[in-house]
Amino acid sequence: MKIFSSNKRSRVARKSHHRSGTQSLSQFFSLRYQRGRLVQQLIGFLGVIAIVVAIQGWIYPFTYRVGDRFPDGLAARMTFKVVNNFETSRVAKERERLVPLIFRNDSSPLKLAPDQLKAALGAIAEAETLADLNLDVRQAFGLIEGPSVPKIDLTNPTQGGAVDVSADVRFRFEQLKQAITPLDARQSDTHISSIIDEFTRLIQPLYKTGIIDAKDLTRRDLGLDSPLAIVDENVELPRPNPLEDTELWIAVSITDVAMSDLLNDAGFLGHRWSDFPRLETIRQPLEQWMRNQVRHTLEYDQASTQLARRWAGKQVEPVYDLINEGDEFLPPDGIVDTNLLNILIAEYDASLELFTFETRMARAAIVFLMVSILLVIASWYLFRFETGLVTSWARLSVFLAVITLAVFFGRLTSFDPVRGEVAIVVATSMIITVAYNQRLAVATAFLLSLLIAMATRINFAQFTVMLTAATIAVTCLQRVQSRSTIIKAGFLSGLLTFVVAWGMEILLYPSDSLYYWFDPLLLQLCLKYAGWCVLAGFILAGSLPFIESTFGVVTGISLLEMSDPSHPLLQELVRRAPGTYNHSIALGIIGEAAAKEIGADGLLVRVGAYFHDIGKIPKAEYFIENRPSGATNRHDTLAPAMSTLIIIGHVKDGVELAEEYHLPQVLIDFIEQHHGTTLVEYFFHAANKKADEEPDRKQDVEESAFRYPGPKPQTREAGILMLADCVESASRTLSEPTPARIRTLVHQLTMKRLLDGQFDECSLKLSEIHQIEESLIKSLISMHHGRIVYPESTKVQKTA
């Protein structure tokens, strides 16, 4: 046991400990890298499964469409049954015709008839002569006087006379009055009440069946054998079959509800007159009164009738025709029409029934393998050119989700009569262009065209049309600075797609007749493709805000909106930091020109310049461009380190302001990166000078404390803004900004940033940096150009 032990570690121990820490760190990063690759592989695996499900990889696709031409003809590949739509429709209509018409019965008018008849008979009993009877009652009983009419004797035409109509009416009136008036006048009311009681019992069975309007007989084209269903007006019929419950309705025929049929000798009421002796004596005038006064009680229920007929028609079993294997569908050079397409669909459905579960799973496995190969090829492209998309699991998931949805909707819309798969490919490719870039959009269009063609028709012409339409639309969207750009891209894509679709059909199916070149079905299909391309442009133009928020991108349209001087942040900047605002405007001008020189996004650089220094708003007076002439420099009372913290802090303050005002991330990146990790040289040298003056100086000033936190510029646009920012600010320090001095200044600052490694993380090339430098020199010389000095006017004094 050692009593005296030293705490000092040996060199070997310290070396071993350092190696262990380094090894642990490398293992940590290796494990993190492996986890990242595992997540990528898992997302890719799920993406393959989703695509296989979207295209229904377990069944083979239905490849026929209206307008397809078969030079060798087409015959049945198997024996199957196909629905005969004509016969099925005929049987269904016949079944619908047998469904009774539904009428709603409101018996209240019929229940009022006895009281109305009693009042009319009472008026007749009280009237002494026909003239004493009011007109309504006379009309109701048909007791209307008129002129004499000629009477012709058919046995002796030479002899004739005249019939006195008035006398006949008066005679009938007297007969009716006598029939309802008993010998004892005091019993008149009792006799009429007896008549009304018999009349009530006569018509009481009609309360349930009702009376139909004579106009409905002609309006509904009803015959004597037409069935009717009488339903009380307060009864609610069931759905979807209103006539399901037979207890809710009464089946009748026309003769049971038509007044004329009820009153004739063979009718329901005609058989019952003998049961009511008092009514039988006044049968003729009473029948006349009932025809004129009894209102109809049945109203046609069109909605319930149509519902019942539709339900009955749906219950009809389809009528099938048998198609034998080898039966010819099309002769050589035949074209598929709608009728034949239905037969081919029936054959396709019948063939799917022959596929066992094992066969379907085997096909799904093959499709899974093929899709996996396609995505592996696509992943090589992504790893090679789109590393930012692959390294972010969220972006990769969104990208694969877009592909899956596009394949699903492309397959869904590829059938007749829509044929809209080209619109899905065009719209998706344009979205990828807006969200990422044209190169990825073209690759996506190729992948989508291949997958949709594999899932629908497996047709080379279809693949070519989809790929061509998408590629044309993508090439027109290099810069999306207005919605009209997208719409124009859709129109141009539609125009050229029409030509390509028409040309592919002519090339693949040659014909010795020029008629096929202008076949209506072919031209209609080509126009449909063109129309879908145009529609895709309009839809994308209207959904840009949703696309921007989903993919986190900013289009030129949004940038133009944010460049408006009335933006709240810019208004705050011009109010509280006017010098910074003027600097930002000048920086936007020269930065945009430099960006356009190398083919970068000039609009993005200009808008980024407008907002890059918004972090100076809270402490505007600490920045020299905002200090009024003659005002005290606030940094004179501060230590260099504190001044540096304030200067560097405008980056952090700018990010916070940008997030508060919901600026897009691309502009926040400009705020963070426009200084990179450069050194605040003025205060660094001031700190060194102050440290040199201290006699007990212990350590040098740390340079890292006087550098911006970064990050360095990550894009070409951010690198352009950094360089333009420093040269525009420095050019204001030149007392005489001659072209030579400006050129020297810009070159020195460019080389300083280059040697400091500020452009290491962006994709700027040396040749592009040189082009940027020349553009900045040209812009600054233009801004600081000289003016002609006008001579002062001399005042001539006259001597007196």
Automatic annotation (TrEMBL):
Stretches assigned to the HD/PDEase domain: 576-739
Native organism taxonomy: Bacteria, Pseudomonadati, Planctomycetota, Planctomycetia, Planctomycetales
Pfam families: 7TM-7TMR_HD, 7TMR-HDED, HD
Keywords carried by this UniProt record: Membrane, Transmembrane, Transmembrane helix
Species: Rubinisphaera italica
Keyword Cytoplasm belongs to the record: no
Primary gene name: rny_2
Organism domain of life: Bacteria
Protein name: Ribonuclease Y
TM regions (residue ranges): 38-60, 364-383, 389-410, 422-452, 458-477, 489-509, 529-547
